[in-house]
Amino acid sequence: MRTKLKKFAKRIATRIIGRPILGRSILLYHRIAEAEFDPFNIAVSPREFERQLSTLRSKVVLPLQEFATLHLQSKLPRNAVAITFDDGYACNALVAAPMLQSLNYPATFFVVSDAIERAEEFWWDQLEFVFRAPEFDHGTAMHLLHVYSGEILERGVRRESSSTANFLAIWAMLRRLSAPQRRKYLDDLRGRMELKAEMRQTHRPLTVAELRALAANPLFEIGGHTVTHPSLPILTEVDQEDEIVRGSRLLETMLGKPIRSFAYPFGDWLPVTREIVSHAGFKCAVTGVHRRVKRTDNKYAMPRRQAVNWYARTL
Question: Which domain, by its residues, includes 39?
């Protein structure tokens, strides 16, 4: 009876305060920016990010590797939190880092190495740019997907609609292609629609200089996030290892320091993926599973809680 009363009181407090008590959680961010089109709900406005950071003042904000070590030793404080960012957007250095620095909060930035080297938007952002352009033609987009994949791909996409659902359906199809196929597809699609490739300031990845500045700050850690951000389980074991290991080696070459943490792209992994990460020498790895860290969680498959603009009402 007492346990039930405690649970009831916690629910009431949550409704009054606007958020439940946060602890033993690894927070996941991507972009800190105002976004007109955000189908994945991964953009948090700077104002909201600042507010979210202020809610952590009563918590123990730890570097990710320390969080993982204490977790492994069963010594993780109940109110421990770690902050992470995926992909390597420029706003991480330009907007998020100064805010974190002002509060002395550590963070880990998981970076896709190919995006830094190529200096181009992530493929899903390139797709979004084309999809929302006035010149976008549904029939051409679907025809080219069939050409590059060899599959009949019309199912699940309505020709007459340019909705978020349609964007996500095309994204899901494109995600199954290899990185070279996706690149050729996007180049071909832009060419047929007479669109120039752009790198928007609002969507661009970090530059090498920005990445090095982040890495030079003792508060921040750079982690591995593969070369091209594939869904690792759809690759062969050899290709998974190449993406995981080579991506981090490229970052190590840029930064002159070891990469010891890893994030699975899209949060996707298999037991063999986890074994590759472990054998590659990483100290910990994180997924995209949205929940707190449990005592039984493997340090190479720790869950994270995606922070969004309605973060305080959902965590």
Answer: 27-119+203-314
Any domain includes 227: yes
Amino acid (1-letter code) at residue 280: A
The answer to whether residues 172 and 164 touch, using CB atoms and an 8 Å cutoff, is no
State whether the Cα torsion 237-243-246-247 is positive or negative: negative
Residue 230 carries which DSSP code?
Answer: -
| d(C-alpha 231, C-alpha 178), whole Å | 10
- CB neighbour list of residue 11: distance below 8 Å, 6 or more residues apart: none
| Count of beta carbons in the 10 Å neighbourhood of residue 196 | 6
Considering the domain architecture, whether residues 145 and 101 belong to the same structural domain is answered as: no
> Does one domain contain both 273 and 221?
yes
Residue 43 pairs with which residues in a beta bridge?
31
Sign of CA dihedral 213, 216, 219, 223: positive
Tokens at 140, concatenated? 């051409």
Do 143 and 185 share a domain, yes or no? yes
pLDDT digits (tens, 9 = 90+) for 50-99: 999 999 999 999 999 999 999 999 999 999 999 999 999 999 999 999 99
Close Cβ partners of 148 (under 8 Å, ≥ 6 residues apart): 177, 181, 184, 185, 188
Instruction: Give which of 300, 243, 304, 292 is closest to 68, Cα–Cα.
Output: 300
Q: Among residues 192, 226, 241, which one ends one of the domains? A: 192
- Model pLDDT, residue 22: 65
Tens-place pLDDT, residues 172-224: 989 989 999 999 999 999 999 999 988 999 999 999 999 999 999 999 999 99
Structurally, the chain folds into a number of domains equal to 2
Say if CB 228 and CB 266 are below 8 A apart. Answer: no
